[in-house]
Design goal:
311 residues, alpha/beta, Purple Acid Phosphatase, chain A, domain 2, four-stranded mixed beta sheet, 9 helices, globular, disordered C terminus
Length: 311
């Protein structure tokens, strides 16, 4: 049975909690409201962010300053919007009309914030809590060991001199299949795409970025959500991830492996913030105040049914 952490915290505020939170995307005011609801105490509690700290929302600058200021009380994995910010700052890509990162790029402490951001991991695993956190997905061939190895390869490039070259070599979709002999920029492009972009792939692990092969006549070529691929090597793990705001959130299993736990519920698009307390599996939700069309969630069991699914 789960320990009743809620009752224990009500009688003893010194009991620490770890909260995993879905994609924030610059929604700083909403995050503060959520943390107030959680009764978050940075002296004893910890925050896990599923990536995409920036962009879309109204205040990426203050959000990044706040999370950086939490020090060891917070950890975030890198998402595709975080990498886009780094790529724009490096001059590798142009800023887009819909981006909301101009204020951040013009800030006097921008360089310090980006230095901190590119030193965040792309995978975080806790043996103590028995959870693994990524932003997007894992190809079916990767177990925790292989995923950790590939994460370190990408992190090493991002955290060292000349990291800007990475963004010049991320253009293009390929390679679409994992091979152990992938090398150089092709290997790093595949690794980056999995950790920050992956949603769909076929049973062989071939990436389908837009889910166009969901209705392929041949079953072996039909795209599935990456976590529904039969016999994927990461199946024993409890994986927390973001990136896919249209997946319905479901509680983690209380015994044994639970598969996957999506936490992005579209805050920047007028949806909700979702936080999961890892010690007892308790969910907290907060309606966001950003004015936009809310996401409509789909149950994970329905995602492969052929219904149109937004990305």
């Amino acid at each position: 049975m789960y320990f009743d952490l809620q009752k224990h915290r009500e009688s003893d505020k010194s009991v620490p909690s770890t909260y995993a939170i879905g994609d924030v995307q610059g929604c700083f005011d909403d995050l503060l409201r959520l943390l107030e609801k959680l009764d978050f105490d940075p002296d004893i509690d910890r925050l896990w962010f599923t990536g995409d700290l920036v962009n879309k929302g109204p205040n990426s600058l203050e959000l990044l300053r706040f999370v950086r200021g939490l020090g060891t009380a917070a950890i975030s994995v890198l998402g595709n919007h975080d990498l886009h910010l780094l790529a724009v700052a490096a001059g590798a890509v142009k800023i887009r009309k819909k981006d909301t990162i101009t204020e951040l790029l013009d800030a006097p402490d921008c360089e310090e914030l980006l230095f901190w951001l590119r030193h965040q991991p792309v995978l975080h695993h806790s043996e103590t809590l028995d959870f693994t956190m990524i932003h997007a997905g894992l190809p079916p061939q990767w177990d925790l060991g292989k995923a950790g190895q590939c994460a370190r390869e990408l992190e090493t490039v991002l955290q060292n001199f000349g990291y800007e070259d990475l963004f010049l070599h991320l253009k293009g979709d390929g390679p679409l299949n994992w091979r152990e002999d992938l090398a150089g920029w092709e290997r790093l492009r595949f690794i980056t795409n999995c950790f920050t972009q992956l949603r769909w792939c076929d049973p062989s692990g071939r990436i389908d970025f837009l889910g166009k092969r969901r209705r392929a006549s041949a079953k072996k070529k039909r795209s599935l959500p990456w976590f529904e691929v039969p016999d994927r090597a990461s199946k024993p793990l409890r994986i927390i991830f973001g990136h896919w705001a249209k997946l319905a959130v479901s509680p983690p299993a209380r015994k044994g492996p639970s598969g996957v736990i999506p936490l992005d519920t579209g805050c920047a698009n007028g949806g909700r913030f979702t936080a999961l307390r890892l010690e007892d599996g308790h969910y907290f939700r907060l309606k966001c105040k950003n004015k936009a069309v809310p996401w409509k969630s789909l149950a994970i069991s329905d995602i492969s049914s052929g219904k149109p699914v937004g990305l």
